[in-house]
Amino acid sequence: LRAKMVIDKDFQIARVDNRIYGSFIEHLGRAVYGGIYEPEHPLANEQGFRKDVIELVKELQVPIIRYPGGNMVSAYNWEDGVGPKSERPKRLELAWRTIEDNQVGTNEFMDWGKAVGADVMMAVNLGTRGIDAARNLVEYCNHPSGSYYSDLRRKHGYEQPHRIKTWCLGNEMDGPWQVGHKTAEEYGRLAVETAKAMRLVDSSIELVSCGSSNTMMPTFPEWEATTLTHTYDAVDFVSLHQYHGNAENDSPNFLAKSMETDHFIRTIISTCDYIKAKKRSKKTMFLSFDEWNVWYHSNESDTKIDPWSVAPPQLEDVYNFEDALLVGSMLITFLKYADRVKMACLAQLVNVIAPIMTENNGRSWKQTIFYPYMHTSVFGRGIALQTVNSSPKYDSKDYTDVPYLDSTAVFNDEEESVTVFAVNRHLEESLILNADVRSFEGYRIVEHIVLENDGDLKAVNTADHEAVKPHHQGQSKLDEGMLEVVLPKASWNVIRLA
Ligand code: AHR
């Protein structure tokens, strides 16, 4: 089977905003307690954060991390998580029905963000609270001094403001499961007024308006049209959330699900541009795909968790090899829309539907999905190229004309290198990819990294055994500007030229 690509330096989509390689930590399950924070662990630092986890996050070079939720933020009082730890209240956390003892809050998380080298994307509670709590939090975090909340932060030991740039106006407010769920009209009005107050405190912030929780919501995409009618001028981004699963065990169909992501992005771009036209606006709305991943493995076991436990193992999907392929395809999809998708957050980062897992008081380890995420984050910086692809195709249960080849390329103009990311969706046959790279004169192949697993799509990693990990023995050759690459059956590939 053969596929073709033309990759030209001059066919540019846009400079990649590194924040598309963002992630997410919610106060949920063992993400915070027992994940990033475990004071009793032998590898904990003086603040109680696990150093082994910090190192793994650094390997991923995560530029921005969304916090503190997720569903959790919609009933969260940020004031519970600041000040002396001994005085912080224990609360019933309503979204996930656990006990939250608030030993980690805004200031600690900002310190952890620094330790891993990431900015924080902070979400405000527009479920049970609103304008007042949001503007106070901006004042607490970003105002230098001389006001009640900025001085409170200083009293709490943080002399310098955190200067948080990116803020989410609530979370999934279209979802009936959300505490304080709202209609599009209600949310649009609240969001625009909250945005106004937050910007009056700090005019330099960026804001994200809540989009639909997924494409199956009955209000999609009318939710975006109505809410943006209110928020268009006041925000910089609209959010998208999407999780895929393979409960039906139909792998060809599962691997095609990034086409659903593509469709979602196109619909939201169209909706934003429709509002832009209606408003005779000159401003272009950007997309923040701030929750995405595979999520279904843990659904069943999550129903058995007792309510009101402390840091239970919720949403602990153990990812298999095919999940890594779909994660790779979703990242490729974001790169294809680099002109509009400026942020994206792999949900989540540690233990909860995550690339990094920990054992309580034990080891930390990498899930299968760690690898495509790391490869794109590390090598996918620069300018996203508009490649021209042609590939044999297949039909699956829900999709027609699914190309076996899913691929794109990023040109790093500073380092003078180009990286091709490619998934072969064919489960039985290799794909020979012939790519015309003649515009990259004098370039050579640096490496061809492959994540493959001899067709065992269900293999998983554990703390003891890393069954799925990349190798560097990919077969590729470059001759007079023509690249020939063997993409093994069911594989993720990273071909680097410089
Ligand atoms: O990431 C897990 C949950 O998925 C988040 O809390 C919520 O926003 C989404 O429904």
From TrEMBL:
Reactions it catalyzes: Hydrolysis of terminal non-reducing alpha-L-arabinofuranoside residues in alpha-L-arabinosides
Family, per entry: Belongs to the glycosyl hydrolase 51 family.
Keywords: Carbohydrate metabolism, Glycosidase, Hydrolase
EC number: 3.2.1.55
Lineage, uppermost ranks: Bacteria, Bacillati, Bacillota, Bacilli, Bacillales
PANTHER family in UniProt: ALPHA-L-ARABINOFURANOSIDASE C, ALPHA-L-ARABINOFURANOSIDASE C-RELATED
A GO molecular-function descriptor: alpha-L-arabinofuranosidase activity
InterPro entries according to UniProt: Alpha-L-AF_C, ASD1_cat, GH, Glyco_hydro_b
Gene Ontology terms describing biological process: L-arabinose metabolic process; polysaccharide catabolic process
Organism: Paenibacillus crassostreae
Oligomer status and interactors: Homohexamer; trimer of dimers.
A Pfam family it matches: Alpha-L-AF_C
Domain spans labelled Alpha-L-arabinofuranosidase C-terminal: 290-491
Protein's name according to its UniProt entry: non-reducing end alpha-L-arabinofuranosidase
Pathway it works in: Glycan metabolism
